[in-house]
Amino acid sequence: MDDKTRRWHSYVMSQARATALEALLAKFRWTGVHADFAEVFRSAAFVASIGPALAEPFEPASVSAVVAIEARGFVLGGLVAQALGVGVVLARKPGAVHPGAIEELAAEPDWRGRRLTFGVSPLAVRPKDRLLLVDDWVETGSQARTVSSLITRLSGSLVGVSAIVDHADPRNTRRTRSYRVVAFNRSASAHGQLIAARPPFPAAR
Predict the structure, then answer these.
(1) Is residue 161 part of a domain?
(2) Residue 92 has what DSSP assignment?
(3) For 2, 63, 97, 132, which has the most beta carbons within 10 A of its beta carbon?
(4) In terms of C-beta density within 10 A (0-12 exposed, 13-18 middle, 19 or more buried), how is residue 204 classed?
(5) Are 92 and 118 in contact (CB under 8 A)?
(6) In this structure, is residue 63 part of a structural domain?
């Protein structure tokens, strides 16, 4: 890629991030204590721009596939995979149909105290795969750590996490993160609008 093409590509990517962030801030809302993305995903501008926007920070990382967590992660993962020109590895939750063999691992408790088990097909991960995890929201980081462990079991590696919001406490995640985490809400304006209006969580049971 020559300098002119590189500058144009950088401009297109920055425009995609700006468009996706604008659509996100305009359509995102809280329903109780839950992040409500219904209107966000209904926005054509968001759907058109979020794939390139989440892919851009990891373009130099030689990503061989995107791994996506059920369910909203499947939507985002497909869009990012398309932007990177790679395929998708599905990380499934309990209750889904899993034809064939599957590698499973239970996560640490999430913010609601649930211990979810995630499953990945060994056929989807190849030796030395460099996978990018894509999701909408990082809260405790437990799901990302579990998926990373699953990928390692299958002889791949997790090179990073690209998310819309990273709200994990760095004091709890820094010691266990061996990968880069990039999220929209790290800009001051986005953090204020997405997080500040969040209702308080009920106590975990």
Answers:
(1) yes
(2) B
(3) 132
(4) exposed
(5) yes
(6) yes
